[in-house]
């Protein structure tokens, strides 16, 4: 997809991730490269969270696959995985990782807000702090519904409304204060040392209505509580402590009917 | 009324009411509180419109309820039964359930005053003496949805519903509950309680026990009882809206964070 076809946020985020990709991979790739499926910023095993189940033979689409670490494991479990990412630089890392892993994983450059796939092409659409964080849910959720087959599953991990509401902009960390309104959550623009990036998160009711409107039945909302002392290359010890009290990460699992 | 208890006890009369410990406590609290709920009950009975919660948000705008005409409805924790009265006036066959005989006395008085008759049963929503699969709608507003244990009353609600029936209930906002300052009985702008494991909160002033769950836990509980999530409507009052005597939350607060939320779930047909 050429840059001119992207929404404003998708264009901004493409530039952000093209700039950011090398440094991101240097910082996190070791932590997120796994033999078994793991989710999120604390890399909790899917075997404990119980989201994915049997993967063998499934057609899987990963939205915002980055350097492919999540999708590669699914491919190793027997799924036919297609990875989509909005950043060409991230996909360069992904091509290297896919080749090194010796698996088949088809890679596409594009935005999850407008998917280059036929209706009903996949059994499972996944994202792990991927497009769900950086694309507009009012666009990518209906698109996911469209490309899923009947009874197909959408499962994605991302931030939470609490993470948005309780972020203290002045200290750039989380505390117990309600710093920002809950109503109207949708898009936030950050302008920090890495440049401008646009992130999305919705309130609980807005997510549920969006799923229902898009033809999904809600199966689970797994609110991730990291175990005591959980390690992360994304979160400081203080942040992990906060996340043991209030939800900083959650996984939605919904099914197309 | 209803099926006999396993031990053969008669369900009529208060001696048959089986209560959990917290329900017993809440029943005692309501015995004391009932008097001050007479006037609000009277006002609500006299109100023609269906409204939700302390901000009186009109159902015509919220759209939480299904068509009521001819439906069998049970209200869990009906109190003075103003919700039931509104639904009865719209053609529903209503049964009100409450564990407080004092509240039900007010309900009966207002029934007579308004000439609107429907059954009211003294029982806890955690153990309802009514047959399974006999209602199209289970509703609760400032009732069981707040003062009964969801792990007990949600299975009861699911049991009472017919296939295709709906559960609609209003609770305190989860954020409001987490930011509740027990000393001053007001909501603040700081999370006082942890989210994970949140379940019950005891009011040190009157000893009443209220319940609320994390969002994911509600969903898990619905699903475990065969209910599908239909909606979660987080109520935001209009600017300047007045909550009347309920001053534990300001309009300014409730414009930013949900002070009340309505869950809708359905038993698949």
Structural features, described:
- The complex is a heterodimer of chains A (257) and B (269).
- Chain A has helices at residues 8-32, 46-49, 69-76, 88-101, 131-134, 137-147, 161-165, 204-213, 237-243, and strands at 38-39, 44-45, 59-63, 80-85, 105-109, 122-128, 148-158, 167-168, 173-174, 187-192, 195-200, 216-223, 250-256.
- With 257 residues, chain A is α/β, with parallel strands linked by helices.
- Chain A starts with 7 loop residues before the first helix and ends with a strand.
- Chain B is of the alpha/beta class.
- Chain B has a single domain (17-266), classed as Vaccinia Virus protein VP39 (Rossmann fold), CATH 3.40.50.
- Helices cover 31% and strands 23% of the residues of chain B.
- In chain B, the strands form 4 sheets. In chain B, strands 5-4-3-6-7-13-12 form a 7-stranded mixed sheet, sandwiched between helices.
- Chain B is globular, with a radius of gyration of 18 Å.
- The two termini of chain B are 27 Å apart.
- Classes of the chains: A alpha/beta (257), B alpha/beta (269).
Short description:
The complex is a heterodimer of chains A (257) and B (269). Chain A is an alpha/beta fold and 257 residues long.
Question: Which short descriptors sum up this protein?
Answer:
heterodimer, A: 257 residues, alpha/beta, Rossmann fold, seven-stranded mixed sheet, two-stranded antiparallel ribbon, 34% helix, B: 269 residues, two-stranded antiparallel sheet, 10 helices, globular
* Strand coverage percent of chain B: 15-25%
Runs of chain A in which pLDDT lies below 50 for 5 or more consecutive residues are none
- The structure class of chain A reads alpha/beta
Taking the alpha carbons of the first and last residues of chain A, their distance comes to 29 Å
Mean pLDDT of chain A: 97
Largest interface: pair, residues per side: A-B, 28 and 29 residues
